[in-house]
């Protein structure tokens, strides 16, 4: 009896293993001669340029360290909890890039996360979002990529430890966390909402940064858009868990995504800055409106903005109080000397380019990470609002100074509990800041 039971268990294990291997195996797709640029129409290439911009392809496929690299030639270093991963060369170079890939091979990579050679791709390439893309968008993207300058440049090998370096393990990850399939419009919403959802959930892969991940690096589906830590910054919630006192309305979202600054919420900094400036400023306005329309619904903006008028009035009043008479609070004096000249607003609303910190995400998040990042890095004239810069205070403020300013702002600009261990956290964020702008003194 026991022998039969053991034999059954072994047999089931063998069958399960064979079934998994069948699931995991993909054949190579034959190489092709690199297609001539003239084989694609100008209209298709332009549509593909828009698809590439809305997917931020150049952001993750262009090296930024080691002096930078040619656009789309890969070797962009992505730090993950599992080790460093380097992006692929997606120029049409026949040896180092995808010049010998057919359109079918690109479609399989986008939809299923499998390379031309049949190798499972690491989900740092967000195929769990790209799987939602239409055939037309992938075809147009192929036309665009195949007409870019070919760059003969190799990428560095990934730094994943064994057994994570075994690509067959990615098949197991997919079995647990990946559901392939093209986006299906929701008939309960209008065309603008569905266009926004298609872009946000698919090509633009917003959830890849704004959704927390589990211990295996997969997005937590039950916490969609709840916010997450990305590259040493906090990507704030995009849903109604966003804690700012004024609502991210459809117009605020549009202004932010299109121009890099929202009138009430301030500028786009850190990893978010290239999204409006480098990419979404170059695509049709309708698509940006669609994304804003979709997230305003996710955020329940229409129901929440009724409280905005009172929150705005409180913020403006607090901004005025800071500069009334001699202030005995030494933390307030430090804030006045370093920050108030640029962040002061009288009424009835903030001046564009002079963000009111009481309305900014950075003060309302659970941690002071983003506030410290901006203090240390500053914002260049190419980030945030076009032509307006904030200097870095890397050399001007100590960790203790930053902690005092953060504590002061948290207790005077929000209704939330104080942050803890501020000086330690300031030092930790300082360690992540590797490059300081030339104007680092203030």
Strand order of the largest sheet: 1-2
H and E order = HHHEEHHHHHHEEHEEHHHHHHHHH
- In total, the number of domains comes to 2
**Main sheet specs:** 2 strands, antiparallel
Structure annotation, total helices: 19
What class, by secondary structure content? Answer: mainly alpha
Instruction: List the uncertain runs.
Output: 437-442
Bin the helical content.
Answer: 40-55%
Q: What gap, in angstroms, lies between the N and C termini?
A: 81 Å
Name the shape in a single word.
globular
Mean of pLDDT: 90
Report strand %. under 5%
Q: How would you characterize the overall build of this protein?
A:
- The protein folds into 2 domains: 158 residues, Cytochrome Bc1 Complex, Chain D, domain 2 (Orthogonal Bundle), CATH 1.10.760; 260 residues, no CATH class.
- 44% of the residues lie in helices and 4% in strands.
- Strand 5 and strand 6 form a beta hairpin.
- The radius of gyration is 24 Å and the shape is globular.
- It starts with a helix and ends in a 10-residue tail after the last helix.
């Amino acid at each position: 009896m026991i022998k039969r039971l053991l034999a059954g268990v072994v047999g089931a294990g063998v069958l399960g293993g064979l079934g998994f291997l069948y699931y995991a195996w993909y054949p190579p797709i034959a190489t092709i001669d690199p297609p001539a640029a003239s084989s694609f129409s100008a209209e298709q290439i332009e549509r593909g340029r828009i698809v590439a911009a809305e997917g931020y392809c150049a952001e993750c496929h262009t090296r930024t360290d080691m002096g930078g690299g040619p656009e789309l030639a890969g070797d962009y270093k992505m730090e993950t909890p599992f080790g460093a991963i380097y992006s692929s060369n997606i120029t049409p170079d026949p040896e180092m890039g995808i010049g010998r890939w057919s359109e079918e091979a690109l479609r399989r990579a986008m939809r299923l996360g499998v390379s031309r050679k049949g190798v499972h791709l690491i989900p740092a390439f967000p195929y769990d979002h790209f799987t939602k893309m239409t055939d037309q968008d992938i075809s147009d993207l192929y036309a665009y990529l195949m007409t870019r300058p070919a760059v003969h440049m190799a990428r560095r090998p990934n730094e994943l430890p064994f057994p994570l370096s075994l690509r067959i393990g990615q098949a197991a990850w997919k079995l647990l966390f990946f559901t392939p399939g093209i986006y299906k419009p929701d008939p309960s919403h209008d065309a603008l909402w569905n266009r926004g959802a298609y872009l946000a959930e698919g090509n633009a892969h917003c959830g890849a940064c704004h959704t927390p991940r589990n211990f295996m690096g997969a997005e937590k589906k039950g916490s969609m858009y709840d916010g997450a830590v990305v590259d040493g910054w906090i990507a704030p919630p995009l849903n109604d868990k966003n804690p700012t006192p004024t609502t991210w309305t459809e117009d605020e979202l549009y202004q932010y995504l299109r121009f890099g600054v929202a009138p009430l919420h301030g500028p786009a900094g850190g990893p978010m800055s290239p999204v409006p400036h480098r990419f979404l400023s170059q695509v049709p306005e309708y698509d940006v409106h669609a994304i804003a329309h979709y997230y305003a619904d996710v955020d329940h903006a229409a129901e929440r903005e009724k409280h905005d008028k009172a929150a705005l009035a409180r913020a403006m009043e607090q901004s005025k109080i800071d500069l009334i008479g001699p202030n005995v609070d030494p933390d307030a004096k430090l804030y006045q000397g370093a920050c108030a000249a640029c962040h002061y607003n009288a009424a009835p609303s903030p001046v564009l380019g002079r963000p009111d910190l009481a309305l900014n995400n950075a003060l309302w998040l659970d941690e002071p990470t983003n506030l410290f990042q901006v203090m240390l890095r500053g914002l260049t004239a190419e980030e945030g609002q076009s032509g307006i810069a904030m200097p870095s205070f890397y050399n001007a403020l100590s960790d203790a100074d930053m902690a005092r300013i953060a504590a002061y702002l948290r207790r005077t600009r929000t209704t939330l509990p104080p942050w803890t261990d501020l000086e330690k956290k300031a030092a930790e964020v300082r360690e992540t800041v590797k490059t300081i702008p030339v104007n680092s003194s203030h």
